[in-house]
């Protein structure tokens, strides 16, 4: 079984090279994209994709373009989300945000570039396959990143700011803003491995529960965490009147729910037997700090 | 042979429905996306794609998802380009720009949504085909819209503002900012039709020359056109110190070059014989005002 660290190293090494394959790209654009893409981070989404593909009987090598694309999509969404017109954040992972370093115009274009290149990178791989698995995996990722997924989650997050806390709204926002992009790697990874509908559905179930636990944890850390260890300003959610799980359920209620969602995520993979061990442990490790 | 109007009506009708297939999407997001997507326009890019596919022996029906996706990509690039941090335009096609109506945050997300949905829409079609033509067509479109194409063109356009006019810079900007997105429909349309490399290369050649003529015309109209009939403020390029063809070659030199690029575009399609008539006439019609 692989370790988190081994997966991380594989992803880091591949990320370093992946934008260098486009000689026609403007150097200043690539620099701004890489500033955010190579700024560390836990690489959870690509790890989930590689591990899912292996769990389903596939290899890391065949899943890598999709794993990198997913990290590019996550990075683009962070860059746009940090813009002055959006969350107006000056700090991410203890570094100045993209627009602080490169200006707003370049940050918008760096985000656009990462999103488009994510799609192009997946299709460069998919078009050379002998089947449609790559095409289907790319579809799953863009669907969950788009207007039926993450982008709508962002819109609702913004529009519900300052409104009374509403369980349906919090659930919609958490599902689409966060869980969809943690479900995409499971769906795509298992499709790439050639799994059938039932196995893919089990992976989706894991991703959704893990995604909810993940965002509930994020909400909780904004209340009980500290700025330095998180690398970003805490206490902002309440200040901005965000729809958070803590506002809905309180600190102890949120802890309970994180335990419950984590358990459901772990259980969802039972059908994979021992091959699920890595992803089951990962779910428990990710949330153990706050459970 | 189809007429421009017949193609336009087909595209308009399909555009009206295409975002309504996503029930999970936030209604306010879809409204902002449709405000720009359905604001008229000549629909040149989708028409080029449909006509190319027909020229290559394919049908409009099989090419439509890709044609709509291309218009979505064009629309997203206009929305982001108009933002205060970019060109800061308040008017497009005689209507207030997206951010003026919906605010900057929503305009950024509407653009992100259009770009992602463009990819997802192509892949929903491509994944149900029996071959990889759809995947290859989608790759061509995202490649030319991305960091080796349009996005890098935008970056250079911005970075070269106020610098001395430079032929290489103008050519790079025109090729990537404009011609790449007019070449993509030729490449994708002919791939969808099942054409071989040589025919696709001829289409690419047409697209590149037409694209250069198109941007040269845009530069010229900014000098000799009027605000009302163009639906946007004229005279801005010189004011902002943009790299334009008129600054490089003067009004008469630009007219000469437009004639030359149009002729090269028309000649490039000779290998298609009579099937090329529509696209050849289109190239001449598009530029006749200023030739």
Q: Biggest sheet of chain A: strands, sense, closure?
A: 2 strands, antiparallel
Radius of gyration of chain A: 18 Å
Number of helical segments with 4 or more residues of chain A: 14
- Spans of chain A of at least 5 consecutive residues whose pLDDT stays below 50 are none
Q: Average pLDDT across residues of chain A? A: 95
Quaternary organisation? homodimer
Number of strands of chain A: 2
H/E topology pattern of chain A = HHHHEEHHHHHHHHHH
Measured as a percent range, the helix fraction of chain A is over 70%
Strand order of the largest sheet of chain A: 1-2
Number of domains of chain A: 1
Q: CATH H-level name of chain A... which superfamily?
A: Farnesyl Diphosphate Synthase
Please state the structural category of chain A. mainly alpha
Quick rundown:
With 291 residues, chain A is an all-alpha fold. Chain A has helices at residues 4-18, 27-37, 44-55, 60-82, 98-102, 104-126, 133-145, 150-159, 167-192, 197-224, 227-230, 236-239, 245-268, 277-287, and strands at 91-92, 95-96. Chain A is 72% helix and 1% strand.
């Amino acid at each position: 079984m692989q370790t988190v660290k081994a997966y991380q190293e594989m992803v880091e090494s591949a990320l370093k090279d992946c934008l260098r394959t486009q000689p026609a790209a403007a150097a200043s654009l690539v620099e701004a994209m890489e500033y955010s893409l190579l700024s560390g981070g836990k690489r959870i989404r690509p790890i989930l994709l590689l591990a899912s593909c292996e769990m389903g009987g596939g290899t890391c090598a065949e899943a890598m373009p999709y794993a990198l694309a997913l990290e590019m999509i996550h990075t683009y969404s962070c860059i746009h989300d940090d813009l002055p017109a959006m969350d107006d954040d000056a700090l991410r992972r203890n570094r100045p945000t993209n627009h602080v370093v490169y200006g707003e115009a370049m940050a918008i274009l760096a985000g656009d570039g990462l999103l488009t290149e994510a799609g192009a990178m997946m299709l460069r791989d998919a078009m050379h396959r002998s089947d449609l698995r790559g095409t289907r995996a790319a579809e799953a990722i863009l669907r969950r990143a788009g207007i039926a997924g993450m982008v709508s989650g962002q819109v609702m997050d913004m529009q519900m700011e300052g409104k009374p806390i509403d369980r349906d709204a919090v659930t919609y926002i958490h599902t689409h803003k966060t869980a969809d992009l943690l479900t995409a790697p499971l769906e795509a990874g298992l499709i790439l491995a050639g799994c059938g509908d039932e196995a893919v559905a089990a992976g989706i179930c894991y991703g959704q529960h893990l995604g909810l636990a993940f965002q509930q944890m994020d909400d909780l850390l904004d209340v009980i965490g500290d700025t330095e260890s998180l690398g970003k300003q805490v206490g902002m959610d309440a200040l901005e009147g965000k729809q958070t799980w803590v506002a809905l359920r309180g600190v102890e209620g949120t802890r309970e729910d994180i335990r419950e969602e984590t358990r459901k995520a772990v259980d969802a993979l039972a059908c994979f037997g021992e091959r699920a061990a890595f992803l089951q442990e990962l779910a428990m490790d990710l949330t153990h700090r706050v459970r």
